[in-house]
Amino acid sequence: MFLDPLILMLLLITAALGFVAFVFLPAAIEILKPRDKGPRRILKTPFQKMMRHGPRLALTPKPASVNKNTSKDLQDILRDIGIKTRRIGNDTIRILGGVAIPPNLEIADNVVVEGSLVVGDQCVFHGSVKANGSVFIGLGVVIKGNLISKGNVNIQDEAVVGGSVHAGGLVRLGEKVFIGLSVVADGDVELYENSEVKKNILTPGVIKVLKHPQLDYPSTIEDIG
After folding, report:
1. 210: CB partners within 8 A, 6+ apart
2. Which residue pairs from 89-98 have beta carbons closer than 8 angstroms and sit at least 24 positions apart in sequence?
3. What percent of the chain is modeled with pLDDT above 90?
4. Mean pLDDT across the stretch 89-98?
5. Among 20, 102, 21, which Cα is nearest to 69's?
6. Could you tell me if 179 and 202 are in contact, meaning their C-beta atoms sit under 8 angstroms apart?
């Protein structure tokens, strides 16, 4: 029994179309699939957004209430409290031993401390500061150069370091601290989320970002009341 010519023709056309689809389907899929548009933009974390768009602290002079002491006055003050100093060149003071610098001083020279250093609130350093021991920087201090320590560095709220911070130990930054370049530490780095490090934080330890504002949690069950 022979097939009707019309049915035979339809079968032949269907077979031909199936063969064409089988041959060209992979190429069609390759052409129609979505193209790779290259590297995607990585969304910033909330901390990165805050660092980029948060308020920046300008390196502005302190108000007129700050005592305009010169570096010679600093040597006189330290000499009065029994701290020996030595001038190196025209722009550096070396302090022989550890020292606590009184608040509200403006210091034109670089300062090198052979021991630990404590800087009182609202001091202004127009150069760099280096210490062989640990460093404690008070509230609102401005250091327009670098801060270098062979020990730990603790920087209190609203302080400004125009250059980098290098520490042989850990680094702690309070609230609204501005670092103009990088923080490099041999120990952990701890900072509040409303502080800003303009460049990088380099440490083999842990970087801990604390929430703002500070919260005082009870240390013992008796403190809860």
Report:
1. 190, 191, 192, 193
2. 91/127, 92/127, 98/133
3. 52
4. 90
5. 102
6. no
